[in-house]
Write a structure and sequence with these properties.
The protein is of the alpha/beta class. Strands 1, 2, 3, 4, 5, 6, 7, 8 and 9 form a nine-stranded mixed β-sheet that branches.
Length: about 350
């Protein structure tokens, strides 16, 4: 989930007006600045339950499973999920964007769903730059030169990193919770106790007891379901919705990838030297220069107070910020129309 350092010491929820999703529908996607963006038709969350096209492609260290929607030659949007979620976070977003002419790619991150490591000898590393490079490898494998990147949680962090380190590959960015690049040194400092309490699972995963829970077929889904309930308090999802995503947690590498991610963030697990040069650049908190829309979910306990002000200085290009009232952590699945509209609008900044 999101970088704990972005959690406000004040702990309070962000506030802000609900985003208006109305406006004139006119120009085609990807015409940055050439008139008003098309309005995304409203859809009831949960209207879709599956993707029509699921594919596999070898990319870098992985055989990546991904969903695809929309025309093959449309401008590309890559949607990136977080933990404990999967591609179904975008099951309503993808058809909305596809109907507007976008080619939408939604990959399972390493350790999730049908994505597999090509070699049993590859270290099950989940440090931030490794996951970012997975996305570069996927874009290369699919011959995608440039894409709009849109994500939340792990997906926001990954999209932020690509936009900061490889801006030439990014048309525009939609980042839920703003600038989530992890500063491992800063992570070693304590937060206010109420904020630390919110991160209970991160410290649980630092223990062998937590690792055992993630390896347990009995406790892993129960633990993930608890996180869903906690961080999305207003999302009235049904059991079938959770179970569709929970199947992605049955990947044999899931426990190792999740545990390494959270331990690495706290400086409790090593990364790999091959990524040192990227992590050194990320430690300097590089600016994001590409057109960006940041989104905050008002009912997400991790949303920092200040309506985006805590990370505004990291975004130096064309920029908009929106706070969605009554929405929790899994923003694209809880508010698919607003998320899709942010993608369209970011592409036209």
């Amino acid at each position: 989930m999101i970088n704990r350092r972005t959690f406000s010491k004040a702990v309070g929820l962000a506030t802000g007006a609900a985003v208006s999703l109305t406006g004139p529908a006119s120009a085609a996607p990807g015409k940055g600045g050439a008139g008003p963006a098309p309005a995304v038709p409203a859809v009831t969350p949960g209207s879709h339950t599956s993707f029509s096209r699921l594919k596999q492609v070898r990319a870098g260290l992985l055989d990546v499973g991904y969903a695809e929607a929309g025309p093959a030659h449309g401008p590309v949007v890559v949607c990136l999920h977080g933990w404990p979620y999967d591609i179904h976070s975008f099951v309503d977003v993808a058809p909305l964007l596809a109907d507007l002419g976008y080619r939408v790619i939604v990959p399972y991150l390493r350790g999730h769903g049908t994505t597999r490591f090509l070699s049993p000898r590859t270290f099950r590393n989940a440090q931030q730059s490794a996951i970012a490079l997975d996305v570069i490898a996927l874009m290369d494998a699919l011959k995608i030169e440039k894409a709009v990147l849109a994500g939340f949680d792990w997906g926001s962090r990954t999209a932020d990193i690509l936009a900061a380190l490889w801006p030439g590959r990014v048309r525009a960015l939609v980042s839920v919770s703003g600038y989530l690049v992890t500063d491992v040194e800063a992570q070693k400092s304590p937060l206010a106790p109420a904020a630390e309490h919110t991160w209970w699972y991160q410290y649980y995963f630092a223990t062998e007891r937590g690792r055992s829970a993630m390896e347990s077929d009995e406790y892993r889904p129960e633990l993930c379901r608890l996180v869903w309930d906690t961080v999305s308090p207003t999302w009235d999802f049904d059991e079938a919705t959770f179970q569709r995503t929970a199947r992605a947690f049955e990947n044999p590498d899931y426990p190792a990838v999740v545990i390494h991610n959270y331990r690495w963030r706290l400086g409790l697990a090593d990364g790999e030297r091959r990524y040192d040069r990227y992590e050194k650049r990320l430690a300097a908190r590089p600016f994001v220069t590409v057109p960006t829309v940041t989104l905050d979910a008002e009912r997400d306990p991790f949303t920092p107070a200040g309506d985006g002000s805590s990370y505004r200085d990291r975004f130096t290009g064309a920029y908009e910020h929106r706070t969605l009232e009554g929405i929790g952590h899994n923003l694209p699945q809880e508010a698919p129309t607003a998320f899709a509209q942010a993608v369209v609008d970011a592409d036209r900044l």
